[in-house]
Specification:
This protein is of the alpha+beta class. It is built from 4 helices and 5 strands. The chain has helices at about 15-25, 30-40, 80-90, 105-110, and strands at about 1-5, 40-45, 50-60, 65-70, 95-100. Strands 1-2-3-4-5 form a 5-stranded mixed sheet. Strand 3 (about 50-60) and strand 4 form a beta hairpin. The chain is globular.
Length: about 130
């Protein structure tokens, strides 16, 4: 059974990094990841003590909110976890939500009735 936590204040970077590396492998810094986690609303999905899904929202609390990522472990996909994370995000957020989507995930968001909005742009701080 999957257990969900709204605004999971106990989420630790080591746990998120372990899961993130299975979805988006990277060289994540434990301290910097914890600082990022502490600045977001974190909705988590757990199977026992294993983090299997996470959605993070960065919001100013009034005008703007963005979903920074929606992660669900591959072996837990197509079980409604992503849908439940998105439902909870829509219920919890104090603002409209904006987010980008990988092309392969667009169908998932369309099935949820989420409409495409503005074209997004990306500024890479490393290039400037």
């Amino acid at each position: 059974m999957i257990h969900y936590i709204n605004d999971d204040k106990e989420l630790k970077s080591e746990c998120l990094i372990e899961m993130a590396n299975q979805v988006w492998p990277g060289a994540y810094d434990v301290r910097r990841m914890q600082e990022a986690i502490d600045r977001t609303i974190n909705i988590t999905a757990w199977h026992g003590s294993k983090l299997v899904g996470c959605l993070r929202i960065l919001s100013d609390g009034y005008l703007f909110g963005t979903i920074t990522e929606v992660l669900v472990l591959k072996e837990y996909q197509k079980r409604g976890i992503g849908r439940e994370l998105m439902r909870r995000a829509m219920d919890l957020t104090p603002t409209p939500l904006f987010f980008g989507a990988q092309p392969e995930a667009e169908g998932f968001y369309e099935k949820l009735g989420i409409e495409k909005s503005l074209q997004s742009f990306y500024i890479d701080k490393k290039r400037n």
